[in-house]
Amino acid sequence: MGSMGEPEIPEVDVLIVGAGFGAFTILNRLRKLGLSVTIYEKGSESGGIWYWNCYPGARVDSDTPIYQLFDKELWEDFTFKERYAGWPELRRYFKHIEKKWDVDKHVEYHKHVDGAVFDEKRHQWLVDCSDGSEIYCRWFIPCIGFASRRYTPPVPGLSNFTGDTYHTAVWPQHGVNLKGKRVAQIGTGASGIQVIQEIGDKTKSLTIYQRTPNFCLPMNQRKLDPKEEEERKANGDYEKAFNDCRKTFSGFTYDFAEKNTFDDSPEEREKFFHKLMVEQGGFRYWLNCYKDMLFDQKANDEAYNFWRKTVLKRIKNPEKQRLLAPEVPPHPWGTKRPSLEQRIYEVLDQDHVEIIDVNENPIEEVTATGLRTKKGLVEVDVLILATGFDSVTGSLAQLNIQGINGGTIADHWKGRTQTSMGIAMPEFPNMFFLYGPQAPTAFSNGPTCTQFQAEFVEEFIKRALADNLTRVEAKKEAEDDWCKRMNEKWDVTLFPKAKSWYQGANIPGRRVEPLNWAGGMVEYTNTLHESLDNGYQGWHTA
Ligand code: N01
């Protein structure tokens, strides 16, 4: 009992928030250092985004084997069934981790972290939850991803609708039967495209409200043969793939081509584009393409034109051709995230599927029975909001985490988003966050990024323990330097030209600024580790 008769506040060495990839990899590393580690998860199961994102068709856009933790003890006896895993399969994978690593004793579910304050006397964070409980921890590690704060646009009259409304980010866990229903959907990002593809054949009508066309790429999905996968494991292919992820810009197994667009003749270019987009599929056309494609507008035009030509062959309706693959693209190719598709253009081309461009026909109001534009009222039974997230910064900024000067993270980011190396911040000692702002985050394969960041945090805490440090804090100069580097990397690309969530431009009125590190994974991880190797350079230590 405490001195006032109050129960003693419990204490752990490490408190992690969220139970997804980042949390599990850091848990396993830090408990091996002999630390007590607890995970608080607000949902009822692990999986992170794969717990919340269970809308129809939700699946990952990174291929096997790299969309998993690279630990042999995990992958040696787990085999994915498809090249690109769907959410039920990913949940099965998380169950596997739980069992294999005996994770259960570390995780508390239905624990919603509300806020935290740093106790300068104890060099510990005091973390509080919505159930009124509190806990002290020396190291505080939010692993809440870049997409945990959903975004609903202020469409007039939204609450008037008397049918069912679903946001893709919080889809009912028990599923929704949309067969034979009249459905409207706002949004055609990664979530929206997957929903359309899955439900488009089943609904009576499907009306899509599109603001920006998604320049989708063929996924080339296939079932995996378990025997073949066993052979790949035995041959060292999995280890090679994980190792290759260390050497590339985005933490995938492949990197940008060595050549520039106009190094090739038009015929060679055509062949190269075809190989990447049609034969190999996946993100190759984006991340394995000419190295100037995301930097040079003329080079980018070549990529767009080939993409458009290929896609137009799959769409018969001329109006849909215009809306889905316009002659003049609204942004350079690949500066918004292309979705991977299986047969999206065939689904969209059907007569019962209508596309309404909200730039030409804004939604004037949602009524009790449907959505009205100047084209008239479309009556529907169900409205799907596939409108995304207050991405990258929204997850952390929504928590009431107070720095040593009393300001919250949202306060710290009032003038600009600022972090030191996308992993820590001045005024927030002993706190590391994974897969957040100003890291390679949305420009990387998720598990690669979180694991490399976790390796750094592990190394940092290991050294801190050896050096008897109980308080570490990023220096202001380190943060300023990182923000400068963020801008330098960003400004030379074509990314600033797109109204994308990569730079906060998906939400009207939000500040537009680079939110993801555009300098590549290798430079990123080198910078992290150099700061330690140079004697905690850029860090205050005590
Ligand atoms: O969100 P989004 P998401 N009126 O922001 C539109 C990851 N993820 O949930 O493009 C009309 O991409 C908005 O239009 P615009 C992945 O990194 C991965 O789809 O901003 N439309 C857009 O079309 C992904 O990129 C996977 O002009 C409005 C859509 O809503 C990220 O999460 C699967 C509007 C929002 O799309 C986010 O994906 C799912 C308005 N007022 C998610 N406001 C896979 O790995 C917004 N929109 C496959």
Automatic annotation (TrEMBL):
It holds the Pfam family Pyr_redox_2. Its cofactor is FAD. Gene3D superfamilies: FAD/NAD(P)-binding domain. Belongs to the FAD-binding monooxygenase family. This is FAD/NAD(P)-binding domain-containing protein. Keywords: FAD, Flavoprotein, Monooxygenase, NADP, Oxidoreductase. GO terms for molecular function: monooxygenase activity. Residues 13-236 form the FAD/NAD(P)-binding domain. InterPro entries: FAD-binding_Monooxygenases, FAD/NAD-bd_sf, FAD/NAD-binding_dom. It comes from Oleoguttula mirabilis.
